[in-house]
Amino acid sequence: MIMDVADDIVEMCTQAVDESNATKRAKVDAGETLTNAQKSRAVLVTYKNVGNINAETVVSRNRDLKLLHTLLCDMGDSVYDWTIPVDNIRPVLNWSGRWGPQEDAMLLVGAFVYGFGNWEAMQKDSKLGLEGKFFLEEAKKGEDASSKPIPNAIHLVRRGDFLLGILREHDEKYRTYENNMKKKVHTASPAPVASSSSHGTKRRADSEISHSIDEGGSRKKKRRATPTFTDSESSDEWCVLFHVLLMPGFLIAVTARRWTKLRRRRNFDRSRSN
Hints:
Elements: H1 2-29, H2 36-40, E1 44-47, E2 50-54, H3 55-72, H4 101-114, H5 119-124, H6 153-188, H7 195-218, H8 237-245, H9 250-273
Antiparallel strand pairs: 1-2
Helix pairs in contact: 1-3, 3-4, 3-6, 3-9, 4-6, 6-7
């Protein structure tokens, strides 16, 4: 039942986002100029008496966690040795303590292992090396914000979203590069390409893509507001169920299950064809 509800929510949110984008395009095609408020307005939906669900957050997190799962699902314990395949990622600003590429990578590994937003569990995992680097309780104290150590939960959400975006951009550019290389090879010669050359292609792709992303990241961009979920005050049982669906790690657990089945199916088909 939970899987069915999760599918319903993702499908509903996807449809809402598509309809919102189509409405905006229609207005632009009709010659109307969209205001900044119209462009940035959140797409909110209601499911079983649970209101104010941010559809864009559901869609983007589901998409990004699928990619993260694809990259890390077969690594086993070596997942703690993983590094983000992009160099010179924009560093954090004014965070308390040391925070660099290693911490960025482990933040995403923690999202894979425990679920995006499960900061407490990440801190307790000594393999991640993030102990003492989150200041979750400090944000709850009634002190001047400028004097509080960071990162707290909101900073971690923003950093996690930023890193997932970097990862997505790298994957998209790699796929584009790979497709272009295949077209060039096909045009130049119909002969099959040796498997050893594929590793060289990937190395060249990673190098060129990282350079491209580095250049893009060096340009100062306006940070988008972090989308959030807001519950209604309904005591309906669907509220309880929806809170379960929003528990840290639920989306990635659902994604992992789906992709594991898909991967097994593909391996079975390959073994039959061989």
